[in-house]
Amino acid sequence: MITYELALLLRIMPKTELKSVLKRTATAIFDKGGIIRRLDNLGAQKIPYKTASHGSVHREANYFVFAFTAPPTKVDSLIHECKRDVDIIRNRLYKVVEEEPYLCTLDEEMLPAPYRPEVIKMIEEAKKNEAKRPKFKYNTGLDYYPFQK
């Protein structure tokens, strides 16, 4: 299953109502076969611009992020369900891309540039590309282009 992040902007409301909205969203994720990995509360903040949703204008919102794994076939129905919810101002779903581990050693970084493995590899690729590049023949007997300033 793929990991997703669901960013939610909820309207300003008391904690008890806020809890019920989060519970509804979590239940919707569980019903779709998802597993919640993390829930982040980013607090109540001003929205960068006024936003109209479900017939009312909002200038502030409660920001929450659900991190969950779910089958890709069920994600569209989850988004549709969030759009119908009156208490949710905005929702965005992002696919989490796992970063490849990068091993970095101080010994390699302290070497002068021509001795680093990455630089040696780039020099070899440049030599290969130079051999493939066609040479221009001038037919003038000169070793330079005479009309260049």
TrEMBL record:
Coiled coil: none
A Pfam family: Ribosomal_S6
GO BP terms in the entry: translation
GO MF assignments: small ribosomal subunit rRNA binding; structural constituent of ribosome
Lineage: superkingdom: Eukaryota
InterPro entries the UniProt entry points to: Ribosomal_bS6 (IPR000529), Ribosomal_bS6_sf (IPR035980), Transl_elong_EF1B/ribsomal_bS6 (IPR014717)
GO CC annotation terms, alphabetical: mitochondrial small ribosomal subunit
Entry's family note: Belongs to the bacterial ribosomal protein bS6 family.
The protein, known as: Small ribosomal subunit protein bS6m
Organism in which the protein naturally occurs: Rhynocoris fuscipes
